[in-house]
């Protein structure tokens, strides 16, 4: 803001020297012209607003700035607002000048203020302020508000302020009154009520209670009873639905169990044939437990088929109270399969959120199935062995089994929210590397460029214009041919890699050349003594003024499609050859190819132009 | 060659004088020029950390070729050169983030800036402040660019989904208003080859090509991106070659008239 406020003073400092602000610009322009003769063409810089100051805009700005609310806002917002409204800098500065800095007094200046100039205005403002100040001695706060007003000139504003003040005063008065008078009455009333209440219980037991009280009591009791009834019925409903759900779950479980049992038995047969009976037995154990698990509070299955089974398999389903979690620790692949199957079908089936499991053999994994309070079951599984199976664990979980196997890959953060939390705490989420991007050598010199800079397409024409005015008249296609020969380039536009592209550039140059004749007033900056005075073959030129060329270009689309069969090899060859060609061309042009490229390739026909278009697609 | 930076790179600008030098604008407010000809360990060659907030764009001077502008969310624009460790000038006039600055292609001392305070300003480095203020839009202006062939024409792209083309000699009324994007237009670029052709990319995931001299200005629309399209550029060397990038982490390079997704 400091710099911001310093900016307006700069132009305003200049202003005292030049009474009219319009003179400022021409003055500067004169300096410019002297400094860089070739910089501007005959009119001064077009990038300067040379409109005269609009008085009406300034007036509006003054009114805006005089508004009390605006006065309270930072200067930069006021400037920004005025700028957005389309005021020029000079107008804004003038408005700022006209609106004096906030004065501590009120102003009731009449409308004559608007007709006066800035000096008279400020004096007129001060005069009415004194008498109007005496108008409101009593009210403190309204005076405070009005003191901010400053240089109001409208009569009705002070009226409005007066009204505001009066309202505030009345409000304050009523508040005071209220406090003083009404509150005591309230208090006494309350006290009376309390006294009555104390008397009431006594009175009730002895004397006949009033009808209303009785009715009220009865109503209350009825309401309470109704509420209770409603609650009870609701609970019953809930429990009924729960029961239904559980029954369904159980049915599903049972069904799957039957199937699984069979597959299990087969699996176990593979392992140890004679263990079948045991497995079956243990599986059968499941059933009564499941059957009895009508309620979530007591679902406990312990499942330990470890008889002579080297792979210890332990399955524990337990749900305790509200932190229901079912942890399955699986060791063997087959068991894994089973439990995957189980969980996917059974437990997950209850909720329907399936997760995909990446199968790892012989990797102890934890399949954690969390049951939420609302009896929803979700399966989440962490497998770090391959470092990529990462599921968001519900935040409501109470148990989060640690990964029994940590992989060497940096574990990904659990969720975006956790990453953000980590960053906020100042930690770095694990999957972000710390990279040192500071320069190792602050004084490292920049390498020497290999390619000399070339002019932009729009520049090239201008450079040619100014630096080659004399040569402009030369028209020779010989030059072009010689260039071709020197480079050993043929005249084939289609097959050869970089020739056509290069050629085309020449074509473009000439087009620009003729175009520049029509152009007016575009100054060239390349005469600043840049080393880049390369009138070398530039890339592509700006819009073509030549009608036939323009037409040719506009044909594009159909010819584009035709030429798309060029192979990628050609493209690659082209691109790689381009830099070489550029350098060679550079040398040639420097040596004197300038004049040659200047002239009349205007005779080059449309075909070339079209072909250029075509090959551009492929490039 | 991969260059690693700790923070988000918001913009990159190739040097006009060096074939291997590029300026990167970093989200922490620093400008880091990288020299690709040097080994990766000596990159970046400098770090100019003067901006207080993110630098939204850098632009290299195509005329003078030795200086560049960085426009930042701290409301300032800084003019820097490679050989100086500090900035040459700071332009502080905008009331809100400066989203982009663009040098005039013909006048090496004139540039335009687009800002979130809904104005575009034209500056002259020889002047202490801005020379023109264009209240171009009612909403934030995200990008501006000069017409490469007519040095008085400037295009501004704004959150109000439109692109307006202005002539600075008559800046009260735009020459053309190009509507057609569904969301804020993030970037505009004039074609180096055809003076009235503008390429723009927008948060509606499309890249559009306009010709404001033509009756119905929209001459091309590509919706190949799956996410916000945030960068677009037109090749200086090959006419009609467009490149665009977006939040879908893809960069497409294609010729106008073809399908960007074609291999």
From TrEMBL, chain A:
Residues 1-20, 104-135, 396-407 have a biased composition (Polar residues). Residues 54-98 form the Peroxisome membrane anchor protein Pex14p N-terminal domain. Residues 1-50, 99-135, 387-415, 513-540, 589-619 are annotated as: Disordered. Residues 153-272 form the Peroxisomal membrane protein PEX14 central plants domain. GO terms for biological process: protein import into peroxisome matrix, docking. Keywords: Membrane, Peroxisome, Protein transport, Translocation, Transmembrane, Transmembrane helix, Transport. It is a single-pass membrane protein. InterPro entries: KPWE_PEX14_dom, PEX14, PEX14-like_M_plants, Pex14_N, WH-like_DNA-bd_sf. Residues 411-459 form the Peroxisomal membrane protein PEX14-like KPWE domain. Pfam families: KPWE_dom, PEX14-like_2nd, Pex14_N. GO terms for cellular component: peroxisomal membrane. It is found in: Peroxisome membrane. The keyword Magnesium does not apply. Its main location: membrane. Interacts with PEX13; forming the PEX13-PEX14 docking complex. Interacts with PEX5 (via WxxxF/Y motifs). Belongs to the peroxin-14 family. Component of the PEX13-PEX14 docking complex, a translocon channel that specifically mediates the import of peroxisomal cargo proteins bound to PEX5 receptor. The PEX13-PEX14 docking complex forms a large import pore which can be opened to a diameter of about 9 nm. Mechanistically, PEX5 receptor along with cargo proteins associates with the PEX14 subunit of the PEX13-PEX14 docking complex in the cytosol, leading to the insertion of the receptor into the organelle membrane with the concomitant translocation of the cargo into the peroxisome matrix. This is Peroxisomal membrane protein PEX14. It comes from Ilex paraguariensis.
From TrEMBL, chain B:
SMART domains: WD40. Its main location: cytoplasm. GO terms for cellular component: cytosol; peroxisomal matrix. Belongs to the WD repeat peroxin-7 family. It comes from Ilex paraguariensis (yerba mate). InterPro entries: Beta-prop_EIPR1-like, PEX7, WD40/YVTN_repeat-like_dom_sf, WD40_PAC1, WD40_repeat_CS, WD40_repeat_dom_sf, WD40_rpt. It holds the Pfam family Beta-prop_EIPR1. The keyword Transcription regulation does not apply. This is Peroxin-7. It is found in: Cytoplasm, Cytosol; Peroxisome matrix. Keywords: Cytoplasm, Peroxisome, Protein transport, Repeat, Transport, WD repeat. Residues 96-210 form the EIPR1-like beta-propeller domain. PANTHER family: PEROXISOMAL TARGETING SIGNAL 2 RECEPTOR. GO terms for biological process: establishment of protein localization to peroxisome; protein transport.
């Amino acid at each position: 803001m400091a710099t911001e406020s310093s900016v307006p003073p700069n132009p305003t400092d200049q202003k005292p020297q030049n009474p009219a602000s319009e003179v400022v610009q021409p003055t500067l322009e004169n300096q410019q012209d002297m400094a860089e003769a070739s910089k501007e063409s005959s009119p001064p810089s077009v990038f300067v607003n040379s409109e005269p100051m609009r008085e009406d805009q300034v007036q509006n700005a003054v009114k805006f700035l005089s508004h009390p609310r605006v006065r309270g806002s930072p200067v930069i917002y006021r400037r920004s607002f005025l700028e957005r409204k389309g005021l020029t800098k000079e107008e804004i500065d003038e408005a700022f000048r006209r609106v004096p800095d906030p004065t501590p007094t009120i102003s009731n200046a009449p409308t004559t203020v608007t007709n006066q100039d800035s000096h008279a205005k400020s004096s007129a403002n001060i005069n009415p302020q004194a008498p109007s100040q005496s108008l409101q001695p009593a009210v403190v706060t309204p005076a405070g508000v009005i003191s901010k007003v400053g240089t109001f000139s409208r009569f009705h504003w002070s009226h409005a302020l007066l009204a505001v003040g009066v309202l505030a005063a009345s409000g304050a008065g009523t508040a005071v009154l209220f406090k003083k008078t009404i509150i005591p009455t309230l208090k006494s009333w309350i006290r009376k009520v309390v006294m009555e209440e104390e008397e009431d219980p006594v009175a009730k037991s002895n004397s006949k209670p009033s009808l209303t009280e009785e009715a009220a009591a009865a109503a209350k009791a009825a309401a309470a009873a109704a509420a209770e009834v409603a609650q009870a019925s609701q609970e019953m409903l809930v429990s009924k639905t729960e029961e239904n759900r559980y029954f369904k779950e159980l049915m599903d479980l049972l069904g799957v169990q039957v199937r699984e049992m069979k597959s299990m038995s087969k699996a176990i047969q593979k392992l140890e044939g004679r263990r079948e009976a045991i497995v079956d037995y243990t599986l059968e154990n499941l059933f009564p437990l499941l059957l009895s698990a009508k309620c979530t509070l007591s679902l406990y299955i312990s499942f330990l088929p470890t008889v002579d089974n080297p792979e210890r398999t332990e399955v524990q389903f337990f749900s305790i109270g509200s932190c229901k979690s079912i942890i399955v620790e699986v060791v063997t692949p087959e068991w894994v399969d089973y439990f995957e199957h189980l969980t996917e079908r059974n437990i997950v089936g209850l909720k329907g959120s399936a997760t995909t499991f990446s199968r790892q053999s012989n990797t102890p994994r934890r399949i954690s199935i969390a049951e939420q309070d609302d009896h929803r079951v979700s399966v989440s599984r962490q497998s770090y062995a391959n470092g990529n199976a990462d599921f968001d664990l519900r935040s409501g979980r109470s148990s989060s089994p640690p990964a029994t196997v940590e992989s060497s890959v940096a574990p990904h953060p659990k969720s975006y929210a956790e990453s953000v939390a980590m960053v906020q705490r100042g930690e770095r989420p694990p999957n972000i590397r710390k990279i040192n991007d500071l320069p190792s050598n602050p004084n490292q010199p920049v390498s020497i460029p290999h390619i000399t800079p070339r002019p932009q397409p729009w520049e090239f024409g201008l450079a040619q214009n100014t630096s080659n005015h004399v040569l402009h008249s030369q028209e020779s296609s010989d030059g072009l041919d010689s260039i071709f020969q020197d480079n050993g380039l043929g005249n084939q536009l289609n097959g050869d890699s970089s020739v056509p592209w290069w050629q085309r550039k020449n074509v473009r140059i000439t087009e620009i050349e003729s175009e520049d004749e029509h152009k007016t007033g575009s100054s060239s900056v390349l005469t600043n003594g840049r080393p880049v005075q390369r009138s070398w073959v530039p890339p592509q030129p700006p819009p073509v003024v030549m009608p036939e060329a323009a037409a040719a270009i506009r044909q594009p689309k159909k010819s584009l499609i035709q030429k798309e069969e060029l192979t990628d090899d050609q493209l690659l060859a082209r691109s790689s050859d381009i830099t070489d060609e550029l350098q060679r061309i550079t040398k040639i042009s420097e040596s004197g190819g300038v004049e040659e490229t200047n002239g009349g390739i205007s005779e080059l026909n449309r075909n070339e132009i079209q072909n250029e278009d075509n090959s551009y697609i492929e490039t | 060659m991969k260059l690693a930076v700790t923070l988000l790179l918001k913009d990159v600008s190739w040097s006009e004088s060096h074939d291997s030098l590029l300026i990167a604008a970093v989200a922490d407010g620093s400008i880091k020029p990288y020299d690709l000809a040097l080994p990766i360990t000596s990159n970046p060659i400098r770090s100019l950390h003067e901006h207080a907030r993110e630098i939204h764009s850098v632009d290299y001077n195509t005329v003078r070729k030795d200086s560049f502008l960085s426009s930042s969310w701290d409301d300032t624009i800084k003019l820097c050169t490679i050989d100086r460790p500090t900035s040459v000038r700071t332009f502080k006039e905008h009331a809100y983030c400066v989203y982009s600055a663009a040098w005039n292609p013909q006048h090496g001392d004139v540039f335009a800036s687009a800002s979130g305070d809904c104005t575009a300003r034209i500056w002259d480095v020889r002047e202490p402040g801005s020379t023109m203020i264009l209240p171009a839009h009612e909403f934030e202006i995200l990008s501006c660019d000069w017409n490469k062939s007519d040095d008085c024409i400037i295009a501004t792209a704004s959150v109000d989904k439109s692109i307006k083309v202005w002539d600075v000699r008559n800046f009260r009324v735009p020459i053309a208003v190009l509507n057609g994007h569904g969301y804020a237009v993030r970037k505009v670029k004039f074609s180096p080859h055809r003076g009235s052709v503008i390429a723009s990319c927008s948060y509606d995931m499309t890249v559009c090509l306009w010709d404001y001299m033509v009756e119905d200005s929209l001459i091309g629309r590509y919706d190949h991106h799956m996410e916000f399209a945030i960068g677009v550029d037109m090749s200086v060397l090959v006419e009609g070659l467009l490149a665009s990038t977006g939040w879908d982490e893809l960069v497409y390079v294609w010729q106008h008239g073809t399908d960007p997704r074609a291999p």
